[in-house]
Fold these 3 entries.
Entry 1:
Amino acid sequence: MYQQIKTMLLLQEAMNSKVNPSWREQGYAWYRAVWVECAELMDHYGWKWWKKQSPDRDQVVLELIDIWHFGLSLYLLKCGTDDESLGRLAEQIGQEFLLDANRSDENFRDDLEAFTEATLSTKDFSIPLFCRLLDGVKLDFDQLFNKYVGKNVLNLFRQDHGYKEGTYNKVWAGREDNEHLVEALVNLDSTRSDFADALYQELKQRYSSHNE
C-alpha cells in the first residue's frame, strides 16, 4: 500500500507541475475544488425526492477519484519533494487508511455532507471521512489506486490536447470523456506493466476518431 500511495503522490506532483511548474507557491484553493466536486458527486448519487433517481455508481466513483486528486495535492503541500519526505508522507496516509474506526454504515448522503462540512471548516482533507465515502460505494484501496492512475492519465491527456488553452473538446460522440474513460478501463488489464501508456493510447484513438 505504501508504495502505491507514493506512486500516486509522484503522479500528482508531476500532473500539478505540468499545469504550473510553480504550483506549490500559488496558494491554490484546493479545498474549494474538493467541495465543488462534492456537489457534483451528490447530483450523480441522487438527492431529489420529487423525481425518480438511482445512483450512477460509475460517475460517483469518478467524482471520488477527482476529489482524491485534490486531496493528494493538499497533502503534498505539507512535505518536500525529496524521496525521504514523500516516503514519510506515504506512510502517514497509509496509516490513516488502515484505521478500522474510520468505517461507517451511515447514509452515504450524510457522510458526504459531513466530509464537505469538514472540508469547508478546515480547508483541509480528511482521509477518515473520505474512507467512509469509499466504503459507501464499496470501493477498496486497490480499486482506488487503479482508477486514480486512469484518471491521472486522462488529466494528462487533456493537458496534452489543449485543456488549459481552452481548445480541448471534452465531449466525444455525444458523451463526456469521463464516460469514455470508464469504458477504456473495463477493456484494459490494470495489472499490465504498460497500463498507463496503453490507456493513454486508447483515449487518443477514441478522441481522434471523433474529433477529426
Entry 2:
Amino acid sequence: MKRDSRLSGVLHLLLHMAEADGPVTSEALAGMMQTNPVVIRRILGGLRKEGLVQSEKGHGGGWRLARDLESVTLYDIHLALGAPGVLALGNRTESPGCLVEQAVNAAMSDAFEAAEALLLERFHSITLASLSRDFSRRRKRNASTCDQHRH
C-alpha cells in the first residue's frame, strides 16, 4: 500500500529551515532530503502561496520560514499541501449494489470519518515549535553520535 509522505517530508524541510541562520538554497535542502532541487522548489512554491515560506533571490538568497514556528500547525501545512486524505484505507467500491457491501461500507465509512476527524484535530495542536523543541532535545541527548544533516 502506497503512503503519502508529503507532510512528513515538508515538516522535515521546514525544521531544517528553522535551524538555519539564514535563507537555505533549494540545492542545500535537496541534499538534505536526497532529492532534486526542482522537487524542493515545487513543494516550497506551494507553501509560499499559502504564506508559510518566502524566497529571496540572488547571492545569499534561498528559502526561509515566513511565520513564527509557534503559529504554524501541522493542520496549516496539511491544508497548504491541498488537504490530501490522511488515511490509506478505503472501501472496496464506493457504490456497491450488494447489500452486504453496503453495510460494510457504512460501518467502515463512519470509522474512517471519525479517525480522520480525530487525526486532523490533533494536527491543530502540533506546531512547528513543538517539533523543533523535540528535535533539540533529541540532538542534545545524541550530541556525540548525531549530525543534524545526516539521517
Entry 3:
Amino acid sequence: MKQQEKAELLLSLQQKGAGLLLPNVWDVASARLFEEAGFAALGTTSAGIAFAFGYPDGERIRREEMVQVIRRIVAAVQVPVTADIEAGYGSAPEDVAQTMRVVIAAGVAGVNLEDNTGNTEKPLYELEAQGARIAAARQEAKLAGLSLVINARIDTYLFEVGEESTRLQETLRRARAYLEAGADSIFVPGVIEPGLLQTLVREIPGPLNIMVAPGAPSAPELFKLGVARISIGAAATLATMGLVREIANELHTEGTYEKLAQYAYGIGAAMRLFR
C-alpha cells in the first residue's frame, strides 16, 4: 500500500465500533513479530525506543535518532505504522511542523501528539497553544497530500493534573478543542475504569484511544464499552526488559539456561523474519 492508503486504512480501523488493538513496538524485530502475529497496524513507543538507545523517556532522545528508528520500522512492515512523536520535539507550532515533515518523509500513517510540557510546575500546554500545535501538524499533513491520522493525547489523568473533581471536565474541554483543531482521535492514557470510560466515549465527539497494561479489562470488554483504539505503550518493552533481567540473573547466579530455553526463538525463524 501507498502511504495515503495506509493512512486511510488506519483511520478506518480506529472508528467507533471497529475496535483497533494496536501494539507498540520499538525496533524492527518487535515490529516484525507483532506483524507476523496478525496485527492490522502498529504504533511505536517513544519510551521503548528511548530505552533501547540509552535515554530516559520524555524527549531526551534526539528527534533524528527517533525518526531513524521509525523509518526503519515503516520500511520493514507492510501494515500502517503510527509514530509516537511525544510532544513534537519543541514547544512552538513550527517545532511540531518540522517534526511532522520528517516523520511524514519516514512513511508513517499517523502520529501521537501529546499535550505534556515536561514541566512539573506547568505540566500541560495551554489549550489554545496545544490547539495551534495540532493545527500545525494537520497543515503539514495537508501539504503532503495525506489523510494522516493525528491522535491527540491528553495527559490530565496520566499525570493527575489539577483537582480530581474538575479533571473530567478539563479532559472533555481539551478533547473537543483538539478535535476542532484537526485531531482525528483522542488518547486519554491513565483511564481504565469502565464507568469513566463510558462517560468519555459518550461525551467526546470522536474515537477514544486508551492505554492498557496488566490488570486492565480485556480488549473485547473495552471495545464493548465503546473504546475505539487500545494501545499498550511501553508495556511490551518493559516486559522484554524484565525477561532479559531474569535471564541475566539466572546466568550470573546459577550458570544455567532455563529462561533461555523457555523463551527460545530459533535462529532460522529470526533469519526468515528479516528476509
